[in-house]
């Protein structure tokens, strides 16, 4: 069980009790108003992230390499969705831990992320195999340059 699920509500209750003891009902009203404002700010941020993610294809990211560089352990999934501006393609079963999601870019590079309890635990970057076209392009470019360097008859 996540300790945060117990400590946050307990802390809020202690804050309301302390406000009542120090300032009475006006103190309780001020603290409850602050708590409601905090909840509304988080809700608004979540809705704006989801609105941006709704306008992009599922599992798409502009650059998988840049996403890989920006990721940090224990970041909430909402922050990863905000970075990618896209919902990840689910690879794990519904309700199974760890939750595995993938984001792919235009070059078919992809980042696979594992979330435990809604937090990023590990991720891997996979890049497609690069075909070595420079080896085949070298002899043809050498032939054209040598032909250009040879004197005209």
How would you classify the helix and strand content by structural class? Answer: alpha+beta
CATH-level-2 architecture of the largest domain: 2-Layer Sandwich
Count of β-strands: 4
And the CATH topology of the largest domain?
A: Beta-lactamase Inhibitory Protein, Chain:B, domain 1
Describe the sheet with the most strands.
Answer: 4 strands, antiparallel
| Count of alpha and pi helical runs | 4
Terminus-to-terminus distance: 86 Å
**Chain-averaged pLDDT:** 86
Radius of gyration: 27 Å
Count of structural domains: 2
The ordered H/E elements are: HHHEEEEH
Q: Kindly report the spatial arrangement of strands forming the biggest sheet.
A: 1-2-3-4
- Assembly status: single chain
CATH top level of the largest domain is Alpha Beta
